[in-house]
What we know:
With 109 residues, this protein is mainly α. It contains five helices and no strands.
Amino acid sequence: MEGRPPVKGNVRQCPMPWTQSQVHGMPAVLERIRQAVKRKRKARLTALFHHIANVAHLRAAYLALQHEAAPGVDGITWQQYGQNLAANLQDLSGRLARGAYRATPVRRA
């Protein structure tokens, strides 16, 4: 019987989406960051903030949230925030870029 030795280590996952329904963009960005860290293990990651303030990535994060989850501390539900989603995400991105965004404190139960 012909055989191959088992694969050692982690099998490299494909950075491309398997289906059209998968989110495009962010997985590819994460894969490039992963590769950069592997190349230079001692390097400091200093220029990642532009990925967070990116409107497309904020939209993907919003759509990944549970739609029926309880409202946040500010009382805004997923549906209410989505009524004016483009303007809300643009405003959030701008506040993040300016350093004006301040997260509300977490309500402890």
